[in-house]
Amino acid sequence: MSRPAIAHIRLDAFRRNYRVAKQTHGGKALAVIKANAYGHGAVRCAQAIEHEADGFAVACLEEALQLRQAGIKNPILLLEGFFEANELPEIVNSNLWIVVHALWQVDILLATKLKKPIQIWLKMDSGMHRVGLSSIEYPLAFMRLSGHINVEKIVCMSHFANADNLQSEHTSQQIALFQNALQNLSIEAISLSNSAAILGWPQSYKNWSRPGIMLYGADPLFDTKTQLRAVMQLTSQIISIRPIKKGESIGYGSIFTAPRATIVGVVAIGYADGCPRSASPQNGIGAPVAVNGIITNIIGRVSMDMLFVDLTDIADATIGSQVELWGDTILANDVAKAAGTIAYELFCNVKRVQFKYSDN
Ligand SMILES: *Cc1c(COP(=O)(O)O)cnc(C)c1O
Which residue among 2, 44, 184, 208 is least enclosed by CB atoms within 10 Å? Predict the structure, then answer.
């Protein structure tokens, strides 16, 4: 017997979501599997779609090499490019594509002798103001790189700050600024759309999309009729049941005081596994969970290895009953909302639990 906290990763759902992303956008799709595939396991996720994926995107060289060492042959884009010039030989050897987001990277790229040219995704800051060349710097950098012996091809890219807000005008403004700056350049390909843009902004559709969160089944637009399927189901079991009287309290800080006679279930999962402490009740009510498929809530403070759920209205709950933290009955988006975060962060933080992969 072992601790029953398990992340079930359904690779068939991941594959299906990739197809939804690719078909919705209509062009090629780089599956974004940075940060260990948002906590789902990068190698396993990559292998699940290697025969159909147009490419993968990761944050850095180390993440890409892990995929190459596992035998992944598809194109792989480094979303932050290189951090130091000494990464370039390995980038060339491993046949990786790089984002170029700053002038210092352009300078190094043009000053270094490479064995083979590299495919470049030249990134413009069209309004997010995180990384990327300004719309003023961009055309000149493009012309310096274009046709250079170290440059195989240039894909023009940018990233949206507010694509998950369909009411915001920011996305259209970013697209307009981007297209304006490209006007007099002989461009080969463009990539703008992240998941939210694939689902909400057809104006952003160009040659390449870059879906991330939607591949894992969390809809960034919170569409309740989404076709996406949850890839991760995070579960554990009830390991203790105790009735408490009205007025008694439970857990660290005694933040929950029973308003009525209450059956308290203790679940073997906690914040060290990635169920955030902020999923504890903030103003009375904690994040939703499902016990034997029936929705109830976290009560008391989430601790490192355990948390409490309210079993008062779940008659058949026993020791060993399955508790779903998120997955099929409980949307990660809903837990994230209750915990003041986003599904991305919930997924990335899952650790210590057993990972069980299935592919049906
Ligand atoms: C992470 C990332 C994506 C994927 O974003 P999602 O919101 O998860 O779809 C796309 N493009 C870039 C540049 C990224 O950093």
Answer: 2
pLDDT tens-digit map of 53-63: 999 999 999 99
H runs (alpha helix) in 189-272: 195-200
Domains of the chain: 11-216 (3.20.20.10), 232-358 (2.40.37.10)
The residue whose CA has the least distance to atom 6 of ligand 1 is 212
> Residues with Cβ < 8 Å from 201, sequence gap 6 or more?
160, 163, 171, 175, 193
Report how far ligand 1's centroid is from the alpha carbon of 32 (Å). 7
* 203-257 tens-digit pLDDT: 999 999 999 999 999 999 999 899 999 999 999 999 999 999 999 999 999 999 9
State residue 45 phi and psi, 5-degree precision: -65, -40
Give the predicted TM-score (pTM) of the model.
0.97
N-to-C CA span, the chain:
26
Of 344, 349, 351, nearest to 217 (Cα)? 344
Q: Are 177 and 168 in contact, with CB atoms under 8 Å apart?
A: no
| Low-confidence spans in the chain with pLDDT less than 70 | 1
What is the pLDDT, as a whole number, of residue 1?
Answer: 63
Please indicate whether residue 194, judged by its CB atom, sits closer than 6 Å to ligand 1: yes
